[in-house]
Design a protein that fits this description.
The protein is an alpha+beta fold. It contains 5 helices and 6 strands, in the order E-H-E-E-H-H-E-E-E-H-H. It has helices spanning 28-45, 69-90, 94-100, 126-142, 157-160, and strands at 11-17, 49-54, 58-63, 101-105, 109-111, 119-123. It starts with 10 loop residues before the first strand and ends in a 25-residue tail after the last helix.
């Protein structure tokens, strides 16, 4: 179904930060698990993915909003947390699990992958949308992880350059966007 960015159908700019800003997403294996979990969340919640970057201690995403923003965020954070924590448990990564431990709360959860506060902003214009896409893609460059955005594997920058690798960690839904001005992208 075509998607048009507007006040009536805003995109969501999502930022989620790892607990205590720990570098949770440091290893390629954890990043792979996270990308598979984001894809699972996308399927379960029915949202479109337009841009993303997975940094060592946080992630940014640009999605549509088929559900309330809090529900989209709940799917993303819940599924990613479950998959990453399960991986850490199965691999006996006790040191990592200790850092994520907290006092028991809600439904007997013992670990938290995320800070409790996440930012979700509505993006209701194409210019603001493109500003957020550029911000997302420049994150690894600003952090000194790469010299060029498209060199960072855990980002959608190559999709936006129209040069995705065959083994991209996540696929995007750019073909679903109906731009007001032709020639965009």
């Amino acid at each position: 179904m075509p998607y048009r960015i507007s006040i009536d159908t805003p995109a969501l700019f999502i930022t989620s930060v790892g607990k205590d800003r720990l570098p949770i997403f440091q290893t390629n294996r954890i990043k792979e698990i996270t990308c598979v979990a984001i894809d699972e969340a996308r399927t379960s919640a029915g949202f479109l993915l337009f841009a993303y970057v997975l940094m060592p201690d946080h992630l940014h995403m640009l999605t549509d909003a088929p559900l309330k923003p809090s529900v989209v965020l709940q799917y993303i954070k819940g599924i990613v947390a479950r998959r990453v924590i399960d991986h850490l448990k199965k691999g006996d990564y006790e040191s990592s699990l200790r850092k994520l431990r907290h006092a028991d709360w809600k439904r007997n959860h013992r670990f938290s992958l995320w800070q409790h506060d996440s930012d979700v902003f509505s993006v209701n214009s194409e210019s603001k949308f493109m500003e957020k896409v550029n911000y997302i893609h420049k994150n690894p460059v600003r952090a000194g992880l790469v010299d060029r955005a498209e060199d960072y594997r855990w980002s959608s920058a190559r999709w936006w350059k129209r040069a995705p690798a065959e083994d991209e960690p996540l696929r995007l839904d750019l073909d679903k966007i109906v731009w007001r001005r032709s020639g965009r992208r």
